[in-house]
Design brief:
Radius of gyration: 27 Å
Structural class: mainly beta
Largest sheet: 5 strands, mixed
Strand order of the largest sheet: 2-8-7-4-5
Strand content: 35-45%
Helix content: 10-25%
Order of helices and strands: HEEEEEEEEEE
Distance between the termini: 101 Å
Shape: rod-shaped
Number of strands: 10
Number of helices: 1
Amino acid sequence: MAFLVRNFFVAMVFAVAAFSQKATIHTPQSVSAGNPLTITTTGSGTATLYLIGPSHIRKQSIKLGQDVKISGQDLAVSGTYEAVSCSSEGCVNTAFQVLPGTPARLAFLLHPSRVPVSTPKAVNGTALVSDRYHNTVLEPAKVDFHLSLAGES
């Protein structure tokens, strides 16, 4: 009889633990700007997913236990994003980084000259490299400029 009671108690503990697990969500640590992302969820039932980014907030209904696809268009701005899933059991969240994509654009800023007047053919400027979504690329990039005045080679 004690054996049956113990087995029944152990089975009840595992059953309660299985039914009381809170839903979780998982994302990769980082993704490049403009690339799609899959958020993995656990649990059962329905929930509301909030994707909170530097430029906008997206809200959508999801089914727990199924993967959620996020389009690259929703991840165009680089920065820290927060994915929050709220259900009747409460809210869970995870954070991830959207990194700038590959270099695609170049901006050149010409500064007021700090070069001594006696230095011929000198320019003081800065090159800013950005991806196709106008996120500043933080990785060092080699930029070569060849400048000439009209009539000179």
